[in-house]
Amino acid sequence: MRFAYIGLMDVEEDGVVRRWHAAVNAGNTAAAMRTVTDPVVVSGPRGAGRVPAEEFVAWIERSRISMDARRWHPVGARVTVVEQHATWPEDPEGAEIATCFVTAGERVCAALRYPSAQEALQVASALAEVLALESGLRP
Predict the structure, then answer these.
(1) Does any domain span residue 1?
(2) Does the predicted TM-score (pTM) go above 0.70?
(3) What is the CATH number of the domain that holds 100?
């Protein structure tokens, strides 16, 4: 499958995704709450769906995850995939993961975790197409 990368990531989107990483990595729940919509759509190994922002920040506290953002893939005006190395206190070796971020204004409205960049990019490409159609932009 071919991915259509739309190089339209703007400074606002880049900034919010970077702020999201900084808040999560610092365990700063107040800052994390300011970086996401309420509710926020999440996915990961335990499932997917809308969760209240409070549940998202509770996950940060519980998991104590740290994510080193290694590669950024702007896919559309509001969609970015970030390849990360994630670690947890109980798993300091960690794992390579990729997260597809969708933004709405100055907040992350979806953080969809995948075990590989290829999987995240497939989803991101489809989401970028849908958002482009919705907004009247040409994909």
Answers:
(1) no
(2) yes
(3) 3.10.450.50
